[in-house]
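Section 5.1 Outputs to date
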Amino acid sequence: MVISIKVESFAKRADLFLSEKLGITRSRIQNLIEKGFILLNSNPFKPSSRLKMGDLITGNIPEEEEESELKPINFPLDIIYEDESIIVINKPKGIVVHPSFGHKEDTIVNALLYHCKDLLNIGGTKRPGVVHRLDKDTSGILLFAKNEHALYNLQKQFKNRAVTKKYLALLLGKPEKDRDTIITNIGRHPKDRKKFAVTKEGRPAITEYNILKFLLGVSLAEITIKTGRTHQIRVHMSYINAPIIGDMDYNKKNYENIIKDKNLLQLCKEIKGQALCAHFLSFKHPITNKIMNFKVSPPKEMQKIIDWMKDYGANKET
C-alpha cells in the first residue's frame, strides 16, 4: 500500500483519512498504526497526526490481527435479530458490554464470541464487532457487526447521527419543562475521574426528552440522544434536576422528600442501578440499505413501576 497525500487530504487526521480511504473501521486503523503495520514517510506515527502535502503513507493491511486474549463464554443471549452482517440483542441490566478492568469473561462480547465464531478481530481484538455501547446497568438494544464492512458502515451512521436511539427512563421528580432539548459539553468530572459532568472543556452532547407521565414524584420519560457521550443521559438528567431513579452516581436527592406514595417509594427503592432502557433503535442495514426498526420492553423492575403508575392513574386523580 502506497498513498501520496494530495490537496484534498491536507490537515486531516491520519486515522480518519485512512479509515475513509480504505473502508476500514477507525479503531482497526488506529490499532494497525500503533503496531507499526502502517508508516508515515517511512516512520512510525500517531493516529492523531495531521497530514501534510507530499506525505507518503506506506504499509500493509494483514488479513488477520494477532490472536485475541478474549475468551468465548457460553451463556445465553436474548437475540432479537441476526443475519450474515449484523446481530441485534436485548442486553440485560448488570452486564458489561465488552471486557475491561474487573470484567474479563463476564461480558456480552464474551458470549457473542461463543455464538459467532467469526466475530474475532472484527474491528480489532479488544472490542470485536462493537458498534456502540450501553452502561453496565442500562438495559436494552445493542447492535453488533459481523464483518468489517458492516462495522465501518454502522459506525459511520452513528457518527453522522443517522441512527435514531430512544430510551425510557424513570426520573426522580420532574424537570421544569415537559419537553426540551439539552445542549451542553460533557467531559470527565473534575474531582471524580470515574464520573462525567457538564463542563466547558468537554465534547458537545445533545439530549432530547419528553415527559410521558408524572405521578406522585416520579416521571416516565422518553429520551432521544443525538450524540453518544459516556453517561450522557445520566449526566443530563441530573443536570436538569431530575436524576434517574436508581442512579446513585448522579443522584443526590432523597427519595422520601419527593415520592408521595409509600408503595411507589418502596418500588423505586428496590431498583439498584439506573432505571434506564434503550428501548428503540432505527438504522439502515449496512448491506441492503433497508430501514431496520427494533423495539423492546423495559426490564421487569422498571415495567412494574410503569404499570403501577398506569393503574393508579386509571383509578385516581393525579
